[in-house]
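SECTION: protein entry
WANTED: fold as tokens:
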Amino acid sequence: MARDHARLRLDIWADEDYTDLPSTSQWLYQRLLTHSGLAYCGVVEWRPKRLAQSAADLTETDVEMFAAPLEERNFLVIDRDTEEALVRSFVKHDGLLDKWNLAAAVSRTFLSVASKPIRGAIVHELKRLRDDHPEYRGWTRPDVKKVLGRVEIAPADARAMTLPNPTIRPNERGSE
């Protein structure tokens, strides 16, 4: 079943990591959270030209610039080779693993992710969520257990395995 709505947590405005972001990056984050193609495992297509069509005054370069702070602070892991982006905390904040059928959707959509770094980051985030919420019903599903058995990669390490944001100059990358 395709998603037809998105949950936006009201406490996002009390999260200093989020409110410290530029407004343009906040816009992009919310745009990705409400993207109709956002999979239950938190992955969405990364096509800046298409995302730029969301507003009359945006360009592909704008979208990449808006993404840079989100990548630097691990809100997103973007694999430009596979044209995929992981909204890192989507599964955590949507409460999907506490629902038996939605946990199945998480594991099913995980299998369609092409990016090895993103798959590893998803496993990392699922393990963190399991540590925080061992009571969730989805952990007992065989398909979820299989995903948890895959290689995990911390988001910062996953990002280091992907192509860098093209709007960041090489001398700026070292300071991240």
